[in-house]
Q: What sequence folds into this?
């Protein structure tokens, strides 16, 4: 039963579908920020960070988001480089849509 309340949101995020996730504005902006860092970190703007502040995120929360996103991306790139694949039991539905979505 753990996590069941978030099943649809988690599935939408796994698929990279922010619309279907039904996130409130602050969380939507944060996920868009994560996507920017992941795909094109050089495109992060002062305005985007200011938008996070105005949505209620603190400096510490914004910094933590950057650190966690960068670290996660490091792990993914290392796994890709060494062709490390998760056991099928962890991804029974195949590669998440968020990975293949542009």
A:
């Amino acid at each position: 039963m753990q996590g069941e309340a978030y099943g649809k949101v988690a599935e939408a995020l796994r698929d990279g579908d922010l619309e279907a996730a039904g996130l409130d504005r602050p969380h939507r902006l944060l996920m868009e920020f994560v996507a920017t860092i992941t795909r094109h970190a050089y495109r992060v703007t002062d305005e985007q960070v200011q938008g996070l502040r105005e949505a209620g995120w603190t400096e510490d929360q914004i910094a933590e988001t950057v650190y966690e996103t960068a670290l996660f991306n490091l792990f993914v790139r290392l796994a890709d480089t060494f062709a490390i694949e998760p056991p099928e039991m962890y991804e029974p539905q195949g590669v998440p849509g968020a990975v293949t979505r542009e």
